[in-house]
Amino acid sequence: MCGIVGYVGPRDAVPIILEGLHRLEYRGYDSAGLAVLTRNGQVEIRREVGKLSNLDGLIAAEPLTGSPGIGHTRWATHGKPTRYNAHPHTDPERDVVIVHNGIVENFLELREELAAEGIRFASDTDTEVIAHLIDRYLHAGNDLVTAVRHALQRLEGASAVVVMSRHMPDTLIAARLGNAGGVVIGLGEGENFVASDIPAILPYTRRMIFLENRQAAVVEPERVRCFHLDTGVPFQPTVHTIPWDPLAAAKGEYKHFMQKEIFEQPQAITDTLRGRINFTTGEVTLEGLHLSPAEARALTRIHAVACGTSYYAALVGKYLLERIARVPVEVDYGSEFRYRDPILAETDVVLAISQSGETVDTLAALEEARRKQVRTWAIVNVVGSQAARVSDGVIYMQAGPEIGVASTKAFTASVVDEYLLALYIAQQRGLLTRQDALTHARALALLPKLVGDTLAAVDSITRELATKYYRARNFLYLGRGIHYPIALEGALKLKEISYIHAEGYPAGEMKHGPIALIDEDMPVVALVPQDHVYDKMVSQVEQVKARDGRVIAIANVGDELIAQKADDVIYIPKAPPLLQPVLSVIPCQLFAYYVAVRLGNDVDQPRNLAKSVTVE
Ligand code: M6R
User: Fold this and answer.
1) Mutate which of 29, 402, 612 to test ligand 1's pocket (most atoms within 8 Å of Cβ)?
2) What contacts 533, CB < 8 A, 6 or more positions away?
3) Where are the alpha helices (DSSP H) in 168-279?
4) Per-residue pLDDT tens for 305-344?
5) Where do the structural domains in the chain lie, given as residue ranges?
6) Quick check: bond before 234 cis, omega within 30?
7) How many CB atoms are closer than 10 A to CB 119?
8) Closest C-alpha to 580, from 539, 540, 533
9) For residues 66 and 69, what is the distance between their CA atoms, to the nearest angstrom?
10) CA triplet 565, 567, 569: central angle to 5 degrees?
11) Which fold has domain 256-449?
12) Do the domains 3-246 and 256-449 sit in the same CATH topology, yes or no?
């Protein structure tokens, strides 16, 4: 959840690390710090509580320069967000300095062991034990690499660590143990970079190495030496070229990343469709999947696993895959899947959906599938992420970097990818006539334009309605069928950035309980597209109105009836029923965005949240 950046090379590391941390601040933002090796070979550290701007202020007041350097933004797990708990952490002589992402599960035991040897701790963190352990192995006569290996072998739990030492200048050692987020090594010319996420170092290089579980690297300006942490045996890593444009990771003309990413959806959908569907024949090609017609016919069940917004995308996917490909789909939270000992057949597939590809619960679900020897697929945005690497097949979202903590374009891109997957399986199973395939292809071809039209239609009305409703303390979101997950996603968007309590509910269930909550203080957002359950949704709107509730309806252009029933209507274009959710989610995203802006909240960095959740 924390962000890590490291630099080794001839330049001053401080501005590079600060800039990288700013690009990673979405990962965690309760404190931040950096350390460099100064010209006279000493470790200097600056740490500050709160947003990164506080660290900027501290460094302006107390400047430092040097190289190599390491930096960190923290999302607290052990110990409150204080200056002394902020990373980097070191030993009393500052021999070793480290930044860390993850949790040392046996830290109490290690802390007691070190305390018994007279070591005094300067923080409450689990991380600090790693610095002391490395230092202890150094003092026992080991070289730094061996000391790091010995120390890391003592850790239980998932961790990503970057180590710097005055005993080995011009060097960083990076290591990954388990699924505590990525460790990416960026290859420059006469300089190299380390980070937890690609965007931190994207302005400097697109050539990157991703460390796998229990791999480590000695990173020097002119070379990177990778080795297996447990054996020390070196290996030749694969170098990936990242297709993202560095400009895509900048805010540009927008006030917030979330706003930018909402408005990027027509492009993100165009990009995710690119090269995958032939618009004149309707044929779908998903190169990363390798599913033969025989395997497609034998497919018995898809178990979709995901968290948060990606989980809601999976719920939409259930409708798409069952309707188009006629494959039964079960949807699980990543955090629940492995704990219920799921029944998986040899002919099933576990499908992970994850923007980051690093969400630890989703990765654990993939591991469970692999343990049970079931085929795994992943729909993932971040190229080279762990979910992409460990799955048997991958569909990349191709949505470009998503920086805003509230996920938006990754949701719509995932839904479109699930649609493509459904078509692909149906095609391989021989379920689609040529005419069906063409109808679907045409609908998908029109989708980016419809998304653009929706953005144009709803931007100002959602802003106005945000001003009208932002004082409400509770919201109910109602939807039916394929729009029930949109109600859930709309409620999640509102709560995570506006801190207003919101619940998503299947509209038909309202009368079984939540209707008791309805009064004039609890606005209801009703998703009422003109589909096969339209009449039922209208009747639910009437039930809310009969109890003095206030209704904001999201409805199709031209629906005059709903205007007579609801207090406010947000009109969106009409799309084929299975693609309508891609449009209906957009006013939900924008409404949440404008409410949060109206409340003066930090939209891109909502309190307590982090972009990728790499701890359980
Ligand atoms: O990277 P992932 O898609 O695996 O992330 C899953 C969730 O953590 C994520 O969707 C989270 O719920 C977002 N903050 C939602 O906006």
Assistant:
1) 612
2) 480, 481
3) 257-263, 265-273
4) 999 999 999 999 999 999 999 999 999 999 999 888 899 9
5) 3-246, 256-449, 466-598
6) no
7) 17
8) 533
9) 7
10) 85
11) Rossmann fold (3.40.50)
12) no
DSSP state letters, 179-244: SSS--EEEE-SS-EEEESSGGGTTTT-SEEEE--TTEEEEE-SS-EEEEETTT--EE-PPPEE---
Strands, sheet with 474-479, edge to edge from the N-terminal-most edge strand? 501-506, 474-479, 524-528, 551-556, 568-572
Each residue of 11-41: pLDDT tens digit?
Answer: 999 999 999 998 876 666 788 999 999 998 9
Best of 307, 409, 616 for a ligand 1 pocket test (most atoms within 8 Å of beta carbon): 307
Amino acid identity at 495: K
Per-residue b or e along 138-159, where b marks 16 or more CB atoms closer than 10 Å to that residue's CB: beeebebbebbbbbbeebebbb
- If you ran DSSP here, which 8-state letter would residue 339 be given? G
What does residue 39 show for φ and ψ, rounded to 5 degrees? -55, -35
Copy the structure tokens of residue 335.
């955090």
For residues 320 and 578, the answer to whether their CB atoms sit within 8 Å is yes
Q: Which residues contact 323 (CB under 8 A, 6 or more apart)?
A: 422, 578
Q: Quick one: 525 exposed, middle or buried, by C-beta within 10 A (0-12, 13-18, 19+)?
A: buried
Q: Which residues line ligand 1 (CB under 6 A)?
A: 307-310, 354-356, 359, 362, 405-407, 496, 609, 612-613
Q: Are 387 and 417 in contact (CB under 8 A)?
A: no
Neighbours of 253 (CB within 10 A): 7
Q: Annotated catalytic residue: which of 260, 318, 409, 611?
A: 611
Which tokens sit at 195? 């980070």
Sign of dihedral through CA atoms 485, 489, 492, 498?
negative
Architecture in CATH of 3-246: 4-Layer Sandwich (3.60)
Is the pLDDT at 585 greater than 80? The verdict is yes
Question: Tokens 């799921």 — which residue?
Answer: 342
Q: What is the pLDDT of residues 182-223, one digit of tens each?
A: 799 999 999 999 999 888 998 999 999 999 889 999 999 999
| CA of 308, closest atom in ligand 1 | 12
Name the CATH topology of 466-598.
Rossmann fold (3.40.50)
Cβ pair 41, 166 in contact under 8 A: yes
Ligand 1 atom index nearest CA of 612? 1
The two most distant CA atoms of the chain are separated, in Å, by: 81
Overall pTM surpassing 0.90 (yes/no): no
